[in-house]
Amino acid sequence: MTSSLTLFFIFVSALCAHGKLPLSPETRFVHPNNIDPKDLVTIKVRAHVSGVRIEWPLHTNAFHSYDTARMSVVEPDTEVKVVLFGFWLERVQYVTFTVDNCLNSIQNISHTEFITQSEKIIEVRTKFAESEDPYRICLKENPYLLHETDDPDDMIFVDEMRSWIMSTSDPPVHYMPDELEWFIIFCLFGLSALFSGLNMGLMALSPQELELIMKSGSETERRYAKAILPVRRCGNRLLCTTLIMNVIVNSAISILMGDLTSGMIAFVVASAGIVLFGEIVPQSVCIKKGLYVGAHTIGFTRVAMLITFPLAYPIGKILDWLLGEDLVGYDRRQLLELLKLTPKWDTTQDLAEDLKIAVGAMEIADKSVQDVMTPIEDVFMLSTNAVLNKKNVSEILKRGYTRIPVYEDMDRNTIVSLLFVQDLALLDPEDNFPVQTVCKYYNHVLRFVAAETNLHNMLEEFKTGDYHLAIVQDDEENAIGIITLEDIVEEILQAEIIDESDTIIDNRYRQKRARKVSRVDAGIDTELKSIGVSAITVIANWLRSNFPVFQEQFLETRALVQLIKNNLHQVDFSRESVLDRHHKHHHLDLYTQGVISRRFILILEGAASAEFADSNMKFQVGPWEAFGTAILHAIQGNVSVTKFKGSTRSLYNSHNEAVQFIPDFTVTVTTHCKYLQITVPAFLAALKASNIVRDIPRLPHPILHAAPLTRSKISLEEHSIHKNSPEPQKKRAFSTIEPPVLPLTKE
């Protein structure tokens, strides 16, 4: 207090000496010569420090606090800015810091290093090493400003405690011991993972799914579902519980991590740990093992729901009121798509077949009659003018149909009645009754339906039992097909029901059934029973010279001869059925563009026409014209892999795409024609016969000693023939080879 009063009086005296303090009116205008020397006070002007302030950068702990003695406490070896306040500080040349006295200075800072220097303030930037004693300030004035009597080496020692600076590192104060705090952090990471996993695992299991598991799951799964279901029924409340606990735990992790480490380190470690170990890993596990994890932690979940009850219960009720109850269901379309997806992850064949039937039964509601009907051009029909004589009745019975549509006026679109085969039971073929008479007598119900009629509604009509066949009409009331109960059942079963009377075995691709009896064209396309040995010799040599698959290494000579004899056909339109003449054109299609084929054909006698619809080209082909060569190349590739004696069972599979092709042309026979037709099963039968024959001693055979025939130039334009055959695309599916013309003779 005394020093402060002394300083005050010195300051007042100095102001008066410099004329800055106003005097009394009586003495204000007194000339200096009139002043009494006794009234003047002389003081020495020297630099004086009255206070110190420490400044530090943001986001650092360079300055700690003030201690009880009001000394500034700073972090050791951390740069701070020291601000000195006082008077006549512009006279200072050096500022030094010491822990003892001015003679033992630790740091000397020249006025050239000052940040700021003025009469009342000096700013310097420095670091303080750690020390148990406080740092004190010493000032050295500029020698040029000193009085003659002053010592140039004299220094001003600032001995006020408020200007002292302590440099020490105080140990951080944590919420608890470090070991305990780290242990709690690890436990909190585990809780974060648990609540995050439960949020994903439990909420992914709907109450309906749990009930389904309780009824159809294994014994363990039923036990797990039974334990989880009561808690899962509290949907929104459970959701609020897991989310609230997860937020609380993650916040506690961040707080404790910040207490143990610095700000940036705490942010990075806490964020990475929560994302990786508290979110990604547990959710990826619980999304697949939610039933197991949820059942084993159900007690802990109940405790958490009890803890968060005051907050989770009202929020859950509000969500129930706003969003409705947590109910998950499937409509018909969603259930249908779910059934379709099941075979993709389940490899059980029986399950796939059962699901296929279920899918078919559900899909009929989305299909119309025109999707499954038999087109009118594939329907066997009778004219009202036809006579039921012995020949025609025999033909009808050979077809095998039980209900036959009847048309009039030679117009197949004008269907007027139905003829049941049972109606012919009491008729005498010798009476030659007209079809029209029989139909009028029985007068069976004839139902016409629109093409857009729903398939499910059509099934309901058939279930009444009044009729099981209906005529499908377009918008102009023209007959475009027929629909039967069998067609709908096939659509439900997702498979064709092929009985002894079916001609079309695939309503989608219009694939015809290959058979020898009761086929539509059985009258005009028959097997060629007798043929001369010389003709067989020419055919066999031609095949071996042009296709390696017929050579000795694949087919033994006797097997090849038998293969040729068993697969010769002739087309004779003079033998066409009388019933077919009313509605069929006089032609036979050997190949149809876009229809899958699994046979090789060689024209032997007569002629056929090959038409390419894409290029609008049509050719007349004659003897030794080969079609379907892609089949032979595919057979050769498959047989070569099996080395003749391996399993060739895959080639018998009717769905094997490696031994089939889709022609981009149509081959039609309109006149008398003889041809060789070799199918995949026929060739494989010959291949097996060859293996058997090779085990029998070889006997001389008179066939196959002619000179090999060679190919001539292909005359037709190149066309792509098949999709799945390994043969290059530029190869032809038929060839125009011209060997010496040898007529087929009979012996």
Automatic annotation (TrEMBL):
GO cellular component, one term: basolateral plasma membrane
Stretches that traverse the bilayer: 182-205, 238-257, 263-281, 293-313
Molecular functions per Gene Ontology: transmembrane transporter activity
PROSITE patterns, alphabetized: CBS, CNNM
Signal peptide: 1-19
Localization, UniProt: Basolateral cell membrane
Database matches in CDD domains: CBS_pair_CorC_HlyC_assoc
Annotated InterPro entries: ACDP, CBS_dom, CBS_dom_sf, CNNM, Ion_transp-like_CBS
Main location as per UniProt: membrane
Superkingdom of source: Eukaryota
Location of region: Disordered: 720-747
Gene3D superfamilies tied to this protein: CBS-domain
GO process terms (BP): determination of adult lifespan; magnesium ion homeostasis; magnesium ion transport; positive regulation of gonad development; positive regulation of multicellular organism growth; positive regulation of vulval development; response to magnesium ion
CNNM transmembrane domain span: 174-355
Biased composition (Basic and acidic residues): 720-730
The keyword Transport belongs to this UniProt entry's keyword annotation: yes
SUPFAM superfamilies linked: CBS-domain pair
Protein name (record): (pine wood nematode) hypothetical protein
Species the sequence originates in: Bursaphelenchus xylophilus (Pinewood nematode worm)
Species classification: Eukaryota, Metazoa, Ecdysozoa, Nematoda, Chromadorea
